[in-house]
Amino acid sequence: MLTPSRKGQYALRAVYELAKRQGQGPTKISAIAEAQAIPHRFLEVILYQLKGSGLVASKRGYYGGYLLAKLPAEITVGDVLRHVQKKMAAAQCVACISQQSCPFAGQCAFSSLWRKVKAAAFQIYDGTSMQDLLDDHASVEGPKTARVA
Hints:
Blueprint: H1 6-20, H2 29-36, H3 40-53, E1 56-59, E2 65-68, H4 77-84, H5 86-90, H6 111-126, H7 130-141
Antiparallel strand pairs: 1-2
Helix pairs in contact: 1-2, 1-3, 1-4, 1-7, 4-6
């Protein structure tokens, strides 16, 4: 699991967008989808899943939408990935293309290597919060300067 699945990447982008908008009230799915280039219908499913995790909350009604249930500093990349990629996180082998039909199931010479790679990746994921990503992106963008008309 060096690179999260597409679903995992979309979930991370959705949570990141909510972190960017923290304190601004609920955000509509359409705004998240547009800002992060996520297909609307796929995002609905992902946000519903994340809502069940306690990472994201929703508010109904005209002024409703989604918002973080915790501070960005309290949500790690690992938290998000574990919740939306439960099957992948539970899988023993992270490299086999087809785990159900692996000819080396239980006898793979590389299985200990892949477990170490997965553990190392999750060490980084668990050590990276949404706030860290916001801070990193802000430093890349540099200070915002006022525009003169």
